Amino acid sequence: MAILKVARMGHPVLRKKCMPLDPATITGPEVQRLIRDMLETMVEYNGVGLAAPQVYNPVRLLIAGGDEDESGKAKLRVLINPELTVLDEERRLGMYEGCLSIPGLRGYVERPAHIRVKAYDERGKQQEFELEGFPAIVMQHECDHLDGILYPDRVEDRSKLGFEDEVQRFHDLGVDEDDQDD
Ligand code: NI
Fold it and tell me: Is residue 142 flagged as an active site residue?
């Protein structure tokens, strides 16, 4: 296992449209090592998600957290070649997002609150499920990375992009349901 270096905004690897992985390679040693290293890296830096391009590997693989299983334990999902469908265009969720590739900053982004996800998991099995609320936000943020999109691209009100400590002082970092502002 290894803690990987995380690419920071400005590095072109973060702006690439990532390549799909051949599902037949998912259970192979190379992809399995990448998954383990990404998990270790994410935990080390306290991330709630991590996409492969953030560790200089522009393939369509990501880890997304922010969810819990039935017993309340944190649940991490490994997704390969994910496809997202928005289930409700009207219901949106806004929050100050952060990113391991943009250390120290936060920006207010609104995204659809209810999505369906189709992807391969770390065992190469196809899975399909729905997400709502915070886990849906995390998933969309991570999927954006696979298309070279970073959250500041989605900040509509530029006055709501700032340094984490100042944002914490003057804004509510919590998740706002629907169109409620901070
Ligand atoms: Ni990110």
Answer: yes
